């Protein structure tokens, strides 16, 4: 077992620059953890701390039962795949694949066996082995970079936005390859990206980071269905979740002229943030009670759905905009529209803190 564990990990460059703040998490054999977040949230710094390319200001890193907090990068038995591929331009594909093994003084016969095995898995045919990186496509260079990590047979794999330099179609294909490939490795994998599609499709669990803190650590399906706070709710999901700051009256939040049942709260605040994903705003069905009325002002065609934006009828001075994913078999043009909110899909957040209000009981 080569379990990776981060314990209260902190990195401080100056009192005002603290990219990693007391991060604690673990990754077991066979788990694929993605560090997801916007630029500057601390995800790449965390990866560099694990790799030993940065020294933590405070905290502990263990691999298996070994404390590697102060160990040199070469002594951690970690393989890293970089965004820029980091291939040696003067070496052939074969030489790039075996470069790390030669430094480890692995016997020649074993080097050939490992390289041939990795090349077969990655679809790098014999005709590519004598080419140099400049003669390869972006996808082929990425496969060589992954192959160089695979032949190392490390305790932990680290991948730093490895797909960001690929075009959309190639990124989708390589993403599927990476998912199958690392599922078979049975060692901890830590993957850094700002692309939520990569995070949701590749991972067994996701750590959403913001301002150096872990906002939520959960399987991807729970990150999507039960966001821990308003930041996670707004960052994960495309199209983005509707997040509406609404006034409260009695036991209701007022969305235009629609009264929406609040969760059971000990004290009802003057305002609350309602979150609902566009796919949960629908054409009214029999029995729906939480129905909003408004006017269509924008229709965006997304292939299988239309993303329809409406301005909700309201007596408030500020316009309230709600977006809905609606079928393409109807025409959605400027004019009046009524839509229903699926009550079981509503999320509630504190206006001040952004934290979620737990919904153990909901009035329906």
TrEMBL record:
One of its GO terms (molecular function) is ATP hydrolysis activity. GO terms for biological process: carbohydrate transport. SMART domains: AAA. The keyword Transmembrane helix does not apply. Keywords: ATP-binding, Cell membrane, Membrane, Nucleotide-binding, Translocase, Transport. Coiled coil: none annotated. Residues 4-236 form the ABC transporter domain. It holds the Pfam family ABC_tran. This is Sugar ABC transporter ATP-binding protein. It comes from Aliterella atlantica CENA595.
């Amino acid at each position: 077992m080569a379990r990776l564990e981060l314990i209260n990990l902190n990195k401080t460059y100056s009192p005002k620059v603290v990219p990693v703040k007391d991060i604690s998490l673990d990754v077991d054999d066979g788990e694929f953890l993605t560090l997801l977040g916007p630029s500057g949230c601390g995800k790449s710094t965390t990866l560099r701390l694990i790799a030993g390319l940065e020294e933590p200001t405070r905290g502990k890193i263990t691999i298996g039962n070994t404390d590697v907090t102060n160990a040199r990068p070469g002594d951690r038995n970690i393989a890293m795949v970089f965004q820029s591929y980091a291939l040696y331009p003067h070496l052939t594909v074969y030489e790039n694949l075996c470069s790390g093994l030669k430094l480890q003084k692995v016997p020649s016969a074993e080097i050939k066996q490992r390289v041939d095995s990795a090349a077969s898995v990655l679809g790098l045919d014999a005709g590519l082995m004598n080419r140099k990186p400049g003669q390869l496509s972006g996808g082929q260079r990425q496969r060589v970079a992954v192959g160089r990590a695979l032949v190392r047979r490390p305790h932990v794999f680290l991948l730093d936005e490895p797909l960001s330099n690929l075009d959309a179609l190639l990124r989708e294909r390589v993403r599927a390859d990476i998912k199958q490939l690392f599922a078979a490795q049975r060692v901890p994998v830590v993957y850094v990206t700002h692309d939520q599609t990569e995070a949701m499709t590749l991972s067994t669990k996701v750590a959403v980071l913001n301002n150096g803190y872990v906002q939520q650590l959960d399987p991807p399906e729970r990150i999507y269905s039960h966001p821990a706070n308003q930041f996670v709710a707004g960052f994960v999901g495309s199209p983005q979740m509707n997040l509406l700051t609404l006034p409260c009256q009695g036991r209701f939040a007022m969305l235009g002229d629609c009264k929406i049942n609040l969760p059971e709260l000990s004290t009802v605040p003057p305002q609350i943030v309602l979150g609902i994903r566009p796919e949960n705003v629908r054409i009214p069905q029999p029995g729906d009670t939480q129905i909003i009325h408004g006017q269509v002002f924008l229709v965006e065609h997304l292939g299988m759905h239309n993303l329809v934006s409406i301005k909700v009828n309201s007596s408030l001075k500020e316009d309230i905009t709600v977006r809905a994913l609606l079928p393409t078999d109807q025409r959605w043009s400027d004019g009046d529209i009524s839509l229903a909110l699926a009550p079981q899909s509503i999320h509630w957040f504190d206006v001040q803190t952004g934290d979620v209000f737990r919904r153990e009981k909901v009035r329906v």
